[in-house]
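Practice record 12: protein with flavin-adenine dinucleotide.
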Amino acid sequence: MAKLNLNRVPMPKQDPKLRGRNFNEVALGYSLEQAKEEASRCIQCPNRNCVEGCPVGIDISAFIKAIREDNIPEAVRVLKSKNSLPGICGRVCPQETQCEAACSLAKKGAPIAIGRLERFVADWERANMPKASSPLPQPTPSGKQVAVIGSGPAGLTAAADLVKLGHSVNIFEALHVAGGVLMYGIPEFRLPKEIVQSEVDYVASLGVKIELDSVVGKLVTIDELLNNGYQAVFLATGAGLPMFLNIPGENLNGIYSANEFLTRVNLMKAYRFPEYDTPVKVGQRVAVIGGGNVAMDSARCALRLGAKEVYIVYRRSEAEMPARREEVENAKEEDIQFKLLTNPKRFLGDEQNWVVGMECYEMELGEPDESGRRRPVIKPGSEFVIDVDEVIVALGTTPNPLIAATTPGLETTKRGTVVADEATGKTKKDKVWAGGDIVTGAATVISAMGAGKLAAADIDKFLRG
Ligand SMILES: Cc1cc2nc3c(=O)[nH]c(=O)nc-3n(C[C@H](O)[C@H](O)[C@H](O)COP(=O)(O)OP(=O)(O)OC[C@H]3O[C@@H](n4cnc5c(N)ncnc54)[C@H](O)[C@@H]3O)c2cc1C
């Protein structure tokens, strides 16, 4: 039996010194040779735990086998049969806690780099397979119409699956571009917008119509859609409402929610101001409050905009940080400074009401709270001041209340999330399904996609009576 290779092929990356000042992609992707070498580590074990670990059920061992055999078009076919957004998932999915965590090699060494291989296949397809050569499914039309509200990963996935099943699908998207957080939240250096656009275009090429600048709840209500030709509605409007600290001084100039900051930078291209006309404050000493992916992205954007010092201010320790390990490491390589076990008490401003400082408490960890993580507790008398001229609050988000407020019969929780059956996405309102962050609160791309798939299957069952 061949000896196990327990070390993965490293991902080529931009030099940290250079990349901290540009918005180009950090990870550069495998070459064909590197992808084949990494794929050859896969032992094709019969239990296929990796497939179980994938919320959209990609046949991981089959696409890796195809790479090994140098049959990349077959790898593309296997991937795309389950996942319409592989270039996105290959870049931002938390594979380390899903498919890769379930890999048999993980018990002894580094699991197969499934995400990197997925990204390789998606990028190879874009570079090598002209659009016309990938055959599109030609289903028999069902004569039924479905409205999907929101074009993030949940909406795009549900729409792609429903159209492949023969239903006519319209996505209504509030913004002027499709893609949701993938477009307005996750920065270019982690997920180039060209990749998102090409995968949105693929979903549109399947026959999904995307109506931009369409705020459902203002332009039209869910009941109006149901009374005007749609037999089912899938709600996938995400969780775009930012949470704040609610401490003194939070309204000072120079303090942004991460949503506003990232939308200015990514969607409105503020990093190319004045070529693009939306500006953003360029701070010299920037504090980002929070420890998730959104905080890492905000900190790394602030650095690229020209900040001299950027701090991640997090009230627990690094072990409790919800951000992906890889992104924490990338941030450290770029000299982002981590002020752990630290929590703001109040913000300090100058006479013009611009933020100039942040008074903080030192924290320590107590007993685990309801999230299972150790509760941060204030150390009495530990206050100290950090000088800052910009603050970005990245504490998490909840769903925007517009849909719930304009849709009678839709049940929501205290947190504002929509109540839906976990296995089907069915809400308490007739003919309405929901999935993704609107149901779970801020979560992950792949969990939103998984929810989109489950809901599409249930909507199809309903439409076929
Ligand atoms: C900065 C940032 C970084 C992240 N990094 C990662 C990561 O590395 N890995 C990962 O897995 N996850 C990451 N996430 C989380 C992930 O992006 C989300 O969990 C995922 O996008 C949720 O998908 P969704 O389809 O439910 O909603 P969204 O992506 O939020 O899409 C919802 C869409 O609905 C639209 N919409 C809202 N209201 C209406 C309305 N009334 N009418 C019409 N349209 C409406 C919105 O404009 C939006 O386009 C990150 C999130 C952020 C903010």
